[in-house]
Every structure is written in C-alpha cells, then in structure tokens.
Known about the structure:
By secondary structure, the chain is of the alpha/beta class. It has helices at 3-17, 35-45, 53-66, 77-87, 104-113, 131-141, 174-183, 235-245, 269-279, 282-303, 328-340, 367-375; strands at residues 70-74, 95-99, 116-120, 142-144, 150-152, 159-162, 187-191, 199-200, 203-204, 211-215, 228-232, 306-307, 314-315, 321-324, 346-347, 376-379.
Amino acid sequence: MATSEKFGEIVDFIKGLYPGKKFIPLHEPVFIGNERAYVLDAIDSTFVSSVGAYVDRFEQMMCQITGASNAVAIVNGTNALHMALLLADVQGDDEVLSQSLTFIATCNAISYIGAKPVFIDVDRDTLGMSPEALRNFLAVHAEIRPDGLTYNKTTNKRIKACVPMHTFGLPCRIDEIANICDLWNITLVEDAAESLGSYYKEKHTGTFGKIGVFSFNGNKTVTSGGGGALVTNDVAMAKKAKHLSTQAKVPHQWAFVHDAIGYNYRMPNLNAALACAQLEQLDKFVKNKRELSQSYSTKFKALGIDYCTEIQGARANYWLNAILLNDFEQREEFLKYTNNNGVMTRPAWELMNRLPMFENASKGDLSNSEFIAQRLVNIPSSVRH
Length: 385
C-alpha cells in the first residue's frame, strides 16, 4: 500500500470512530454528568474562591481514587509540581533528575526554585524514565557523601529529587525507579499529571513516591478547566502543602499573620465543583478510552505501524494515544496529511535539552528520547459519546 493510501485509510478510520464531526480534535472535554449542576450550586453558595465544600470533596475523592491518605487541591498541575518540589526541600542550585521527553511544565517547576534539571533517558516501550538509564547515570556521576546526601561528582551539586513522568498516561517502571531513589537517598516526586486512572502493578500512579502530582487542565482525561492536585501519605507534608498554598496564613478569627513565604495556589471552589462532577465519571471515561486504544491497536497492527501500548503489569488510562512512524520525514508527512484532512495530530514535545533555557543542562545518553522525538505522533483520543 502506498504511503498516501495508508494515511488516507487512517484518516477515514479515525473519522469513523468519531462520526458526525467535520474536524476531529486531539482531546476535547466531555461534560455529560453533573458538571452544570455542581458549578451552579457552587455559585449559589457564594463560595467561589479557594474555600468551599467542593474543594474538600475533591480532595476526599482524590484520596479514594488514588489510595493516598492525603490530597491537596492546587490551582494547576505546574503549581502542584512546584509545591511538591518545595515540600521535597529542593533548593536553589540543587539538581533534579528528570526526563528530556516531557512537557515544559516539569522543567519550569524545577526552574522556579532555581534548581537545575538533569536529563535521564526514557524506555522506548513506556516513553517514561528508564530505570536502567537512571541507575547507570548515578553509578557514573553520583556519590553519597558523609552528610548522607547524594551529589553529582562532576558538578558538585546536590541531587535532591527525581521527577519521572507517566507519559501520555502510560505507566513507567516506577517501582524500580522508587527503589533506585531509595538507595541513593533521592526524593521521588512523581509527575502523574497525565495518568489519573492509570495503575502499575495494581497501585495507582502518583503513589509510589513521596509526593505525586496530577493535572486537571482542559485537555486531560477529566478536567476542572484549570486545576491540579498533589497526593502524599505523609500527613505533615500534606498539612504544610495546604498552609503554603494558602499564602502561609496562620489561622485566626480576624488577624492577618503569615509565618513563611506562601503561594496563592489553592484551587477555587468553582473549579473543584467541575472536577467533582468529572471525577464521578472517571471509571467510565477510562473504560471508554481503553476501548478506543484497543481499536487503534488492532488497526495499526494491521497497517504495520507501531502503536504505543502499556507494558506488562500496567493499566493505562490512554490519555493520549500515540504511534511511532518510520522516521522524521514520514512523521512530518503524516502530520501534514492528517491536519490538512480534518484530523488533529501532534508530535511529541521538543526535547527539553534542545530548548535554549536547558541546552547546557547535564544529561545522560538520550538515544531513546531522540529516537522517539523523531517519530512519535499523538492521534485523537477524546472520550466518545
């Protein structure tokens, strides 16, 4: 089959999955539950800012879903990650291990503190941080000094945290990463922004590390318009997160007393109302998306195109479905053809080490990241209704 014919067949197949639409977006929100009722109820309550019943309910629901003992509602995922790194005691000039194949928010949050990202390669099958690459980097570049902390022998900077990401909702080998971090006394902060509803070895993503972070942006599996959350089993850490994210205000009937540098990071009750209605449908949405992924998997296998799927032991939410094409040229041809024919597709993000802000950052061998970035394309992944 000629390449153009194959691309045409893919476009027709995707349009068949979303009948009645002239243009198929990459991922649009679906509001078919109690969204309107809960938002109007929040408005009628007059509690529309960061205090309200829906904020409390949202946090309770996140605990129930993830199995974490504590959840803190944050205004967006980037700020949740920033707060998580602060709670992990990451300081200016520290190093934070992450991956180059990630959304810019990961590195932005690290940079807000003045810390430096260090890029570790990913596994080709998970698209997330490779435990082997992490282990190899630390073996060559790191040492534990008498203070019990890990340092980069080359830069002499403290390696304080590790932030792997569950890319597009596909769980990485997070248990192995957690074990490596424990051996090196490095705090694991899980970027689970894209993986709400994803599990690895029957444990929800975001709960393997000291802190996990989720996003509820408009393009996520469930959305609050703008919103985020962090989860932790550390009660003191959760309490500190709530305190710092509400401007570090000391509770008092009328006085304004603040005991630390605080942040205006709490999720508004209006957003939480929308989030609660969406979370009620999480299981249904994930079931729908997993059925879509199976359709894609079968189709692309028949066409001889690599489809990115969950590894053994993982149960992905398939937030964004992805395929790997033969090379950069075919990727560009596919992107042009699909977007010109009513089907939105997008490449992976530009690798972080290629951006001017991070081009001088320390890094390991990034062969897999380079391979994926040249070939990956995200395809329409909305819940069908």
